Amino acid sequence: MNERPRESVETLVNRLSETVRDYPQPGVVFRDLTPVFADGEALHAVVHALIDPFQGQFDAVAGVEARGFLLSAAAAYASGTGVVTVRKKGKLPRKTISEDYTLEYGTATLEIHADDLLPGSRVLILDDVLATGGTLGAACRLFERAGVQVAGFGVVLELSALRGRSALAGHRIRSLVRE
Ligand SMILES: O=P(O)(O)OC[C@H]1O[C@H](OP(=O)(O)OP(=O)(O)O)[C@H](O)[C@@H]1O
Ligand SMILES: Nc1ncnc2[nH]cnc12
């Protein structure tokens, strides 16, 4: 038996993720996690590491456009719940709620459908990266305005220097790798 030892989720993320300097604008060191999601073993490990601490504590998973969608659909399927989208402005066809926010490289607006989830239900919000926390903070405000309880946040990578955790104070955050 010459099987390789299984890599930890942290090792998989560190080995497979890429770094792109000066993208999408000069001065930003962009961390690209798409190669992590392209690897079957890594995707499986990441999804389970994100949902396991929250099992039984959420009724639906929400993913933030765009890379959060990849995680949220897989996580919802693995946990037997439904999935909803948090989208950039102008993409949803029915009555929406909107929140403006700032992130490392600009400003934007996120939206959900006002009736995506029942008031009183619990949502786990997933994204690939936590940087300033502007994006997840806006997603949180959207669900809370809709009467939905935010069970917590899950991200693959937390860029600690950008202090996103402090923008989400009071909520449980599961990050798989911090740098
Ligand atoms: O913590 P923050 O400073 O808010 O940054 C984190 C957000 O930035 C990236 O998304 P981006 O806005 O680049 O959108 P995209 O996934 O549509 O490319 C990333 O996927 C997070 O959603
Ligand atoms: N440096 C970064 N890399 C990837 N996604 C980001 N979102 C905000 N800052 C980011």
Automatic annotation (TrEMBL):
GO molecular function, one term: adenine phosphoribosyltransferase activity
Organism domain of life: Bacteria
Major subcellular location class: cytoplasm
Pathway membership, UniProt: Purine metabolism; AMP biosynthesis via salvage pathway; AMP from adenine: step 1/1
Catalytic activity: AMP + diphosphate = 5-phospho-alpha-D-ribose 1-diphosphate + adenine
Quaternary assembly: Homodimer.
Family annotation (HAMAP family): Aden_phosphoribosyltr
Protein family (similarity comment): Belongs to the purine/pyrimidine phosphoribosyltransferase family.
Protein name: Adenine phosphoribosyltransferase
Species for this entry: Arthrobacter sulfonylureivorans
